[in-house]
Records
---
Amino acid sequence: AQSVTQLGSHVSVSEGALVLLRCNYSSSVPPYLFWYVQYPNQGLQLLLKYTTGATLVKGINGFEAEFKKSETSFHLTKPSAHMSDAAEYFCAVRPYTNAGKSTFGDGTTLTVKP
Amino acid sequence: DTAVSQTPKYLVTQMGNDKSIKCEQNLGHDTMYWYKQDSKKFLKIMFSYNNKELIINETVPNRFSPKSPDKAHLNLHINSLELGDSAVYFCASSHSPRGALRNTEAFFGQGTRLTVV
């Protein structure tokens, strides 16, 4: 069984400020980890993912995330927020075994203030 | 070219009606999913099909019945619609979670906003 906790359902930052969206997971087997972004009235789009190898992964739009096994975390960061980053962000975990079921966090709404 | 397409995008219907949502993907994936996103934006998986075989069937009322005529299509039929069924339903597809490409992500459709009145 696996679960995902996204700390902070709403995060507000100023344009140009650091973005930090937190994700902690639990999984009984090594996980695959994903961050998705959802813009208003759109489907989910992959930002980045961790499967194996390098624990710092870079994604689209300047986002990156670091897999920290000891902390069971996969926090999403971006050095400088842009107005276009305002959206809903979802962290997801999927076990590397063949179960195939992804579990999504409850989402974090990112607001970017001018 | 839309990778995962759902129709309709909006669906408003009365309680008690039966409705269907269609989904098609042109990515060559062999696994498809239905997710439900409620008004608080919580996203929950409902069903998953791999090569037309049902592999995930979460606790969903049996008024909901998925049908996969082939690998590229997964439709969702809902009988006797209730107010609580109002939500956004997302179709998604991916490579098989059992194969060599199981570490790849899912691709989502644009969603179908179902409103039951």
Note: The radius of gyration of chain B is 14 Å.
---
Amino acid sequence: TQLLEQSPQFLSIQEGENLTVYCNSSSVFSSLQWYRQEPGEGPVLLVTVVTGGEVKKLKRLTFQFGDARKDSSLHITAAQPGDTGLYLCAGLEGGSNYKLTFGKGTLLTVNP
Amino acid sequence: NAGVTQTPKFQVLKTGQSMTLQCAQDMNHEYMSWYRQDPGMGLRLIHYSVGAGITDQGEVPNGYNVSRSTTEDFPLRLLSAAPSQTSVYFCASRRLEIEKLFFGSGTQLSVL
């Protein structure tokens, strides 16, 4: 199983601050996905990045896929309490279209 | 559309008891899967299926059985529950050609 390491594990910030969450691996992924999970619910897909060096923006969220397709980052600008949740990165294991491996997640708390 | 529906929402079992976690989707997705989520361990794939009559093992299949008799349903069976199976279980589905996973809202299982 290819490992996805996420950092930091926990992050508590004040409303309006910026933050970056990282997802790293020693393996190459054909694509990486970012999910957000709220308490008592299943994860919900935010974005999929496919091309090395790709940058995608979703309102105040910016996702980047590393040039070597081994890492990804999620940057949130001017965080809001509604951004609170567990952020998970996930990638398909090499050669498999069916086994999606998840990182352990970053638990973000945005305080008003 | 209801999406992915999991039942029950909560369940308490005694060691050695058996039970079936139900999962149904109404999106005509070929791919269905089961994950367990534990603190500090992230989401781990138990079993998956790419169509009726086809199932395969994920990362942590021991102690769990699955079958896929219809496109809509993918039940997860615990034949003899153990305390180590205390976890939150998520069912997820997607179209084979699209990587976006749709998750149910989870089943919280406690084995005493």
Note: Chain B is about 0% helix and 50% strand.
